[in-house]
């Protein structure tokens, strides 16, 4: 990520709160205005965030001012209604400045949007590893579940509206759902919506038949997004709008590329069921074994380690409390899965280099590392020692 170049001359003031925003750079332009990255002078007001996004609309200069105003009002209504969730772009505030521009202040996702990432991967012909798609799917389902619990339908889920973020001190990437300009707030839990909106390539079949719809329309759109992550193309294409609708209503799409699991193919098929009642719901998908199991299969421990207790899971395997068979010492083993579903060669090399550096330090202020010998075929193992044995239960 390039360092941010801040233009300190341009400031935007929220007259109500007194918070000032310094222009950094423009992020993009949409139908209702521009999105700009700003630095705030009050991080407490934005829950610790130093950089935020201002979505600015000058409604006096737009051709469809009434419709644009409605879209802005809808987005503010939706964002205000929801409690914060890690997989939904967070709303901070909204205000009208002295220049007559209306601004919505939202969370900044520092790794762009999913559309940008897919373009880069497609250009470089670098397929996405399934563990990333699986992790994103799990997070997006959680975000949609949160929205639907607040009786909000997104209605325009697509790669451009899915944002990627990584904290400075974390390797974990988070995906966030954003852009709620045409979302629908339902008054009651079992309400059905009926207006036709959204981006045609990601729209569910029931929308073209003027049928009422519910949260399963967002499931269809998410299925299209997951397919696009694997295939680098949309599942439904057509030379004309009519041809596109025909393909969607018939549910015809090409198989996923080779290299992806049968489980991912099955999940996509469940999400792209033409018949809405037969389509998987978000609770069903979140309960599916493909979503609930670890992102990679954990390698078997080598025979010289006796498993005692799992300490935790990570993206590439697990941490296990063990006893060494020969010495009877307690150790913590970090077991990392290798390809095809685990770490690639570059990540393995980086990790081995890191561990070798830790071994060489031999300082009482660092956790002692050691390699247990030749690498087994199923996985890569590092031992952290000494590890404290589990505490006995307190006496009754």
From TrEMBL:
Its EC number is 2.7.11.1. Residues 21-291 form the Protein kinase domain. It catalyses: L-threonyl-[protein] + ATP = O-phospho-L-threonyl-[protein] + ADP + H(+); L-seryl-[protein] + ATP = O-phospho-L-seryl-[protein] + ADP + H(+). Signal peptide: none annotated. ATP binds at residue 55. Belongs to the protein kinase superfamily. PROSITE patterns: PROTEIN_KINASE_ATP, PROTEIN_KINASE_DOM, PROTEIN_KINASE_ST. One of its GO terms (molecular function) is ATP binding. It holds the Pfam family Pkinase. InterPro entries: Kinase-like_dom_sf, NEK_Ser/Thr_kinase_NIMA, Prot_kinase_dom, Protein_kinase_ATP_BS, Ser/Thr_kinase_AS. Keywords: ATP-binding, Kinase, Nucleotide-binding, Serine/threonine-protein kinase, Transferase. It comes from the Eukaryota. SMART domains: S_TKc. The keyword Nucleotide-binding applies. Transmembrane segments: none annotated. This is non-specific serine/threonine protein kinase.
């Amino acid at each position: 990520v390039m360092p941010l170049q801040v233009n300190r001359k341009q400031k935007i003031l929220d007259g109500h709160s007194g918070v000032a925003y310094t222009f950094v750079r423009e992020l993009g332009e949409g139908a209702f205005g521009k999105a700009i990255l700003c630095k705030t002078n009050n991080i407490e007001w934005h829950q610790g965030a130093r950089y935020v996004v201002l979505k600015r609309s000058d409604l006096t200069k737009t051709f469809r001012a009434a419709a644009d105003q409605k879209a802005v009002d809808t987005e503010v209504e939706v964002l205000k209604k929801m409690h914060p969730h890690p997989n939904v772009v967070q709303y901070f505030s909204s205000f009208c400045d002295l220049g007559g521009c209306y601004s919505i202040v939202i969370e900044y996702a520092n790794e762009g949007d999913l559309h940008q990432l897919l373009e880069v991967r497609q250009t470089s012909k670098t397929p996405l590893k399934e563990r990333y798609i699986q992790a994103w799917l799990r997070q997006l389902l959680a975000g949609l579940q949160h929205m639907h619990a607040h009786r909000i339908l997104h209605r325009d889920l697509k790669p451009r509206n899915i944002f990627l973020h990584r904290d400075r001190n974390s390797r974990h990437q988070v995906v966030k759902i954003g852009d709620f300009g045409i979302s629908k707030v339902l008054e009651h839990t079992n309400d059905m919506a009926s207006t036709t909106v959204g981006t045609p390539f990601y729209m569910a079949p029931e929308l073209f038949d003027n049928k009422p719809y519910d949260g399963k329309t967002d499931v269809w759109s998410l299925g299209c997004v997951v397919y696009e992550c694997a295939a680098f193309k949309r599942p439904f294409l057509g030379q004309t709008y009519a041809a596109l609708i025909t393909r969607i209503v018939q549910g015809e799409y090409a198989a996923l590329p080779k290299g992806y699991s049968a489980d991912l193919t099955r999940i996509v098929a469940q999400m792209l069921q033409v018949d809405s009642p037969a389509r998987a719901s978000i609770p069903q998908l979140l309960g599916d074994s493909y979503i609930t199991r670890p992102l990679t299969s954990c390698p078997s421990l080598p025979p010289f380690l006796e498993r005692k207790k799992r300490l935790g899971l990570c993206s590439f395997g697990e941490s296990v409390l063990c006893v060494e068979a020969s010495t009877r010492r307690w150790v913590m083993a970090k077991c990392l899965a290798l390809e095809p579903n685990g770490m690639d060669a570059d990540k393995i090399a980086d990790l081995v280099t890191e561990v070798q550096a830790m071994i060489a330090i031999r300082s009482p202020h660092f956790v002692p590392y050691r390699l247990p010998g030749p690498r087994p075929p199923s996985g890569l193992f590092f031992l952290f020692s000494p590890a404290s044995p589990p505490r006995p239960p307190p006496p009754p």
